[in-house]
Amino acid sequence: MSSITGAEIVAETLKNAGVRHVFGVVSIHNMPIVDAIGRLEGIEMLSVRSEQSATHMADGYARATGGLGVSLGSTGPGTTNTVTGIYESAYASSRVLVVTGQAETTFYGKGKGYVHEAENQKIMLESVARRVASPKYLAELEGQLISVISDIFSARPQPGAIEIPIDLQYASVDSPALEISLPSPVIASPETMSQAVEVIRNSKRRVILAGGGVAISGASEMLREFAEQIEAPVITTPNGKGALRDDHPLHLGTVLISTGSLQASLKDADLLIAVGTRFQAGVAGRQLEVSLPPIVHIDVDPRNINLNHQVKVGVVGDAKSTLASLQASGIEKGDSPFREQLKEAAIEAKAKNVKMLGRDHESILNSMSKYMDRDAYFVRDNTIPGYYWGNGLLPVYKPGGYIFPASGAIGPGLPLGMGVAVATGVKTIVMHGDGGFMYHIGELATAVQYQMPIVVVVFNDGGYGVLRGLQSRRFEGRINQTELYTPNFLKLSESMGVKGLYADNAEEFDDRLDEAMNISGPVLIEINASTMVPIEGIVPAPDKNRTS
Q: In a 10 Å sphere around its CB, with 0-12 CB exposed, 13-18 middle and 19+ buried, how is residue 176 labelled?
């Protein structure tokens, strides 16, 4: 029987789990794994500039594919860098695995000051990951790694991690089976399915709310078929954008961030069928204040049932299989006049929101929208345009086509988008503010190294625009620590090999975006946000000379 090293066990197991790309930083505590991946066909490591970026890239990769995204780091400082990325992926229910090194087993737990020593590393990882493994013997490695991967794919996806002592990575054993089987979807109980069918049949003015769980479970097509069968209008959460094509006649938009007539009409519904959402509370709990009709709530995580809203029936099950069962139950069509009422209210709400944008943001929205029904993916950071028209008005036509930091973090946009681009191999538009862009700007070098197909659009308003507005409203117009010096983005990006384009106003942006979308490698477009008409209610960017 042939022998295999611990590092080769890791590489082979990841490949067998469907992983084709690993994002990471090489270190003395993971070099054997890096070498094993490099010798194995069908899987590749991409060397990035920080472990935090690597974990965000793995997150974007996982969200775009529905598979496993993997980040590889070193013990100690390398692992601490992964924590923010793990935290974000947990918020987004993303299938992310972090693989880290650890001190030799003879030194681990002794506190001798071994290089990169991290005695409480497992505890730290457990604060953000659902399951963390720490094998002490080589015979434990394969089983524990498979167990963590299986947990990541169980029920509601959550990140996991494994720390592997360096001596176990070098050590050899007789070749194990290296087989991995992923858990089956959670099937709802017959009792709760019967209750849900009865409640839906007894309703007429139904609305479907689709969350991020629809894309995670691959239920988009089943959602469409069920909605068409009962002719129920569909609204989405921001995470659920793309669950139903934006141009589908039953699609109404993103209601929980809409205003006025659409929410008022929703009160006339006699049932809300919520699929794959935990009704995320949002900033200051605003979404909890939305008045909702009786709810049939379908979610794979029982902890989400009755979490933010009390429900009439809670169905614990995978979205795809549950919707298939509902469709098979033969539920009849709902109230047609109510459906038309909601559709008219949605059109009115959209028109109102577009008017709030002002001509410049509307122009840029239109420029980006024309690419959304092609192969392009859209990733945004937490920035003013993202909140005000990305979530609600930007059309999305495929599940996973719209990705953003679900935790509200500033900065992950660029690496998330890079992970999406690697996973899909198609153009990915990444929208940033200048403040958030600086968090991971060094990863432009990574984008060039691997010629990733990304177009980074930076709205430069000289600071943290979202926080600037919040400060102004809450502190009598005073603004503190939200104004930032920004570098010359064009020269900086071009010094890394990224093509840089500049739009001094919204009118120029359309031409720049067309040019960028026809360039094969990474491109950066900077927009001078200080020249733009501000969105209604937003504190305008400082009127100052651009730095680039």
A: middle
Q: By CB neighbour count within 10 A (0-12 exposed, 13-18 middle, 19+ buried), where does 390 fall?
A: buried
CA distance 30 to 52: 16
Residue 256 has pLDDT above 70, yes or no: no
CATH code linked to domain 3-173 = 3.40.50.970
pTM: 0.94
User: Among candidates 234, 229, 302, which has minimal Cα distance to 262?
Assistant: 234
CATH topology of domain 190-334: Rossmann fold (3.40.50)
Residue in the block written with tokens 């926080």? 467
CB 157 within 8 A of CB 216: yes
DSSP 95-134: -EEEEEEE--TTTTTS-S--TT--TTHHHHHHTT-SEEE-
Which spans in 370-453 are helix H? Answer: 384-385, 413-424, 434-437, 444-449
Task: Scan for tokens 């031409």, then name that residue.
Answer: 511
The tokens for 27 are 């270190």
> Which amino acid does the sequence have at 407?
S
The residue ranges of every structural domain in the chain are 3-173, 190-334, 351-531
C-alpha span between 208 and 296 (Å, rounded): 10
pLDDT digits (tens, 9 = 90+) for 387-417: 889 998 999 999 989 999 999 899 999 999 9
In CATH terms, are 3-173 and 351-531 the same topology? yes
Of 43, 70, 65, 45, the residue nearest 55 (C-alpha): 70
d(CA 37, CA 24): 12
Distance CA(389)–CA(391), nearest Å, equals: 6
Inform me whether the pLDDT recorded for 548 exceeds 50: no
The Cα 164–Cα 411 span in angstroms is: 29
Tell me the C-alpha distance between 210 and 276, whole Å: 6
Q: Is 478 exposed, middle or buried (0-12, 13-18, 19+ CB in 10 A)?
A: exposed
Lowest mean pLDDT of 120-134, 146-160, 214-228, 257-271, name the range. 257-271
Q: Which option is the CATH number for 351-531: 3.40.50.970, 3.30.70.920, 2.40.50.140, 3.90.1150.10?
A: 3.40.50.970
Whole-angstrom distance, CA of residue 78 vs CA of residue 115: 12
Q: What is the dihedral of CA 309, 313, 316, 319, to 10 degrees?
A: -90
DSSP state of 377: E
In this structure, the strands spanning 3-5 and 172-174 are antiparallel
